[in-house]
Amino acid sequence: MNGYGKKISLVVIRRLPRYYRYLAELLKQDIKRISSKELSERMNVTASQIRQDLNCFGGFGQQGYGYNVEELYNEIGAILGLRDGHKTIIAGAGHLGHALANHGGFEKRGFKLVAIFDNDKEKIGTTINGVMVYDIADMESYLKENPVTIGILAVPRTCTTEIADLMVKCGIKGLLNFSYMDLKVPENVIVENVHLTDSMMTLSYQLRENKNIGE
Amino acid sequence: MNGYGKKISLVVIRRLPRYYRYLAELLKQDIKRISSKELSERMNVTASQIRQDLNCFGGFGQQGYGYNVEELYNEIGAILGLRDGHKTIIAGAGHLGHALANHGGFEKRGFKLVAIFDNDKEKIGTTINGVMVYDIADMESYLKENPVTIGILAVPRTCTTEIADLMVKCGIKGLLNFSYMDLKVPENVIVENVHLTDSMMTLSYQLRENKNIGE
């Protein structure tokens, strides 16, 4: 349950970021309102799915008027908790950590990268995209003084569990996990796994079926 | 529809790679069979979901015996098309391209990285994880001589569309897209989008609800 009086299904929730991205794009183009039909053509989903999905959040669509882009954008942003301005750290300043630190989308969506940690003496003290790389041995003391909500795990698989445990111990409540295996964390900690191989396998399935299964 | 006589739902398909990973892990530990209860505890989903999901693929579970790990592993691998041994290229030898080329999981799952392309003269002619970096200007002629099924787009957003179009023109049937916006491709081409910011937004939603929504 959430503040909207009905349970939003998992499948709809996983589609919200995509709506949010499209609405951001419309706002940038200074489009004030859009019909479910137009939005469906842009997003390549059916208009009825859009109406059904967005109905979960109450009265943003009006027949003959369409959706108020800015209102819907703000509403979905609020539902996604993007206004909370999550402070974020990355553990691991290798290629993946670099790619993530340089990822323009995070800051734009309200995720503020405050520090990067690594154990490589060559990297410690440098900056990536303006963010300082600290010694991973100092992560605990850093987090004590600078509470952070999200920790991104971009370290080798062998030390992922150890670093994840340390992050949790230091009060981090959300982990973005790029490592191969699922993490065991206390119940009040959220893990979102990004399994790149899973995406490749899903792609392979669709190639075999020669059919796009959608998002 | 597929060869299994009934339609497998999208949600189940998106869970198959996760089953596949767990079964691979069990095989490595030389575990021959497993009950839905044991598997559910390892995977942190309900046993009834596992039974329901795996029922889609016929008689691999027997009451009182559980699942034959190897059979189920092979079967899911076949459904996912992993036996097809997809040849893969990466466009972009930046940090993301590097991270992907070094990703151990791809080759293990039957994706054979055959070439990397970039326009940076410093990178052309070098190898990443044993794979040659070619001039992106030569991608078309390379693909004519070496047909490939999957192209990974790890190039800056500004040139993603151009490179994707070129890949499609050269006969690539599956694209893994890391860029921000959705690609427009012919109907017979499959695109799997990896939107890292979407994962962050979904994580943010779960933090706000203080509830893990599962995979």
The span between the termini of chain A is 23 Å
Uncertain ranges of chain A: none
Tell me the radius of gyration of chain A.
20 Å
Indicate the mean pLDDT of chain A: 88
Largest sheet of chain A: 7 strands, mixed
Oligomer: homodimer
Count the helices of chain A. How many? 9
* Strand segment count of chain A: 10
- Derived structural class of chain A: alpha/beta
Sequence of strands across the biggest β-sheet of chain A: 6-7-5-4-8-9-10
Give the overall shape of chain A: globular
Order of helices and strands of chain A: HEHHEEHEHHEEEHEHEEH
Describe this structure in words.
2 copies of one chain form a homodimer. Chain A has 215 residues and is of the alpha/beta class. Chain A is built from 9 helices and 10 strands. Chain A has helices at residues 10-28, 36-43, 47-55, 69-79, 95-101, 104-108, 139-145, 157-169, 196-209, and strands at 33-34, 61-62, 66-68, 87-91, 112-118, 127-128, 131-135, 150-153, 174-177, 190-193. In chain A, the strands form 2 sheets. A 7-stranded mixed sheet of chain A has the order 6-7-5-4-8-9-10, sandwiched between helices. In chain A, strands 1-3-2 form a 3-stranded antiparallel sheet. In chain A, β6 and β7 form a beta hairpin. Chain A is globular and about 60 Å long. The mean pLDDT of chain A is 88. At the A-B interface, α1, α5, α6, β10 and α9 of A face α1, α5, α6, β10 and α9 of B.
List the helices and strands and how they pair.
2 copies of one chain form a homodimer.
Chain A: H1 10-28, E1 33-34, H2 36-43, H3 47-55, E2 61-62, E3 66-68, H4 69-79, E4 87-91, H5 95-101, H6 104-108, E5 112-118, E6 127-128, E7 131-135, H7 139-145, E8 150-153, H8 157-169, E9 174-177, E10 190-193, H9 196-209
Parallel strand pairs in A: 4-5, 4-8, 5-7, 8-9, 9-10
Antiparallel strand pairs in A: 1-3, 2-3, 6-7
